[in-house]
């Protein structure tokens, strides 16, 4: 096991250094052409590797560095992730163009600046547009019918926000948008299907994000579940306590009966399967529930929709995928999950996967949007059962 882990880590580092070296070399050629004698290779490569490895530097030295320095490095490293992806996508085409120009005997002094500025322009446009998509959340509406009675309720309006990722990158400014837009919907219930924080809980506490989050309002309450990032951070007891202090209940393999009319089932994240306590099967969590009443399940990662349908769940709310966050990553998430974003009817189950409100890594979205879900559930009794 240790040997396999060592090989995996070595492979990851080889890929990271290889990709960054590839991007860095192209950058040095372009800047050398543009700056001439002002270009200093030694200084360039020092600055380049500090920037390229800044996220890793934050991770390995967060306990030593001052909070402000650590946050700055994380922000730089996050944006660099986006530049890395754009570089990997653009530079192979640049190299093909270089080959064509070389075969045509066109001097490098002619095509290097042209290709370089084209790449810079494309990256800047992608970063600006991606930042707008990430920082300008939209309301996505779903209207469904569950053929069950929920007491005297004819419908229920729920605001759903997954993958908020509060931390050094997504802070109070973006959180304020969440509070204002959710409260503007006047929902009956607010549900947060995981990844409320981004790994480390310290920024959440340091910047007093709980004070902002406390302003969320819903008469039937606010419920959350754990996502994989809460497990990565490893501060679950502290996170649960922080949520409790601001009136949000974190359900960890728990079922809540709301006003004796419907059930909210909150599952631990799939990451819990690797912990000593594990997580319970959904069928086990539903033991003792009245299946004639509506059942809403929150499960951060959208796996096993068929099992949720078979267990008797009516609605399953998930996130996790971010819809790839930056295209063309959605082509990967589409293959990994039966439903990586949007709505799917699976038997009697209404499955909804959100692209999330926040971001992981760069606050950039291309091919996806920061979103809040407004879910309206209409309850309609089954006439056969009444008869």
UniProtKB/TrEMBL annotation:
Q: Pfam families this protein is in?
A: Metallophos
- Which branch of life, at top level? Bacteria
Mind telling me which InterPro entries this protein's record contains?
Answer: Calcineurin-like_PHP, Metallo-depent_PP-like, Metallophosphoesterase_sf
SUPFAM superfamilies associated with the record: Metallo-dependent phosphatases
User: Keywords for this entry?
Assistant: Membrane, Transmembrane, Transmembrane helix
Regions that span the bilayer: 37-60, 72-94, 114-132
Can you give the residue ranges of the Calcineurin-like phosphoesterase domain? 156-323
PANTHER family given for it?
TRANSMEMBRANE PROTEIN WITH METALLOPHOSPHOESTERASE DOMAIN, TRANSMEMBRANE PROTEIN WITH METALLOPHOSPHOESTERASE DOMAIN-RELATED
Q: What is this protein called?
A: Metallophosphoesterase
| Originating species | Paenibacillus germinis
User: The organism's lineage?
Assistant: Bacteria, Bacillati, Bacillota, Bacilli, Bacillales
């Amino acid at each position: 096991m240790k040997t396999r882990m060592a090989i995996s880590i070595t492979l990851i580092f080889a890929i990271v250094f290889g990709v960054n070296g590839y991007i860095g070399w192209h950058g040095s050629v372009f800047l050398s052409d543009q700056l001439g004698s002002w270009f200093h290779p030694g200084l360039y490569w020092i600055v380049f590797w500090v920037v390229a490895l800044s996220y890793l530097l934050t991770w390995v030295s967060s306990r030593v560095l001052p909070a402000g320095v650590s946050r700055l490095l994380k922000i730089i490293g996050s944006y660099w992730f986006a530049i890395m992806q754009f570089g990997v996508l653009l530079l192979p085409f640049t190299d093909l163009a270089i080959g064509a120009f070389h075969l045509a005997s066109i001097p490098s002094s002619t095509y290097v600046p042209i290709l370089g500025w084209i790449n810079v322009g494309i990256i800047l446009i992608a970063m600006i547009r991606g930042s707008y998509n990430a920082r300008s959340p939209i309301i996505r509406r779903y209207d469904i019918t569950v053929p069950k009675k929920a007491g005297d309720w004819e419908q229920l309006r729920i605001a759903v926000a997954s993958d908020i990722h509060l931390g050094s990158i997504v802070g109070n400014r973006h959180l304020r948008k969440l509070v204002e837009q959710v409260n503007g919907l006047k929902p009956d219930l607010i549900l947060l299907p995981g990844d409320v924080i981004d790994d480390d809980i310290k920024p959440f506490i340091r910047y007093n994000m709980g004070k902002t989050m406390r302003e969320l309002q819903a008469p039937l309450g606010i419920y959350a579940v754990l996502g994989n990032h809460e497990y990565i951070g490893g501060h679950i007891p502290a996170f649960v306590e922080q949520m409790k202090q601001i009136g949000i209940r974190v359900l960890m393999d728990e079922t809540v009966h709301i006003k004796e009319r419907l059930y909210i089932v909150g599952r631990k994240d799939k990451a819990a399967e690797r912990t000593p306590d594990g997580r319970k099967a959904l069928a086990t969590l539903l033991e003792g529930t009245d299946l004639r009443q509506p059942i809403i399940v929150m499960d951060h990662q959208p796996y096993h929709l068929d099992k949720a349908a078979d267990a008797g769940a009516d609605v399953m709310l998930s996130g996790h995928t971010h819809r790839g966050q930056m295209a063309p990553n959605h082509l990967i998430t589409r293959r990994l999950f039966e439903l990586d974003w949007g709505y799917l009817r699976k038997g009697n189950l209404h499955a909804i996967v959100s692209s999330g409100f926040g971001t992981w890594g760069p606050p950039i979205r291309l091919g996806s949007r920061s979103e809040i879900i407004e879910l309206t559930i209409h309850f309609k009794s089954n006439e056969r059962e009444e008869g």
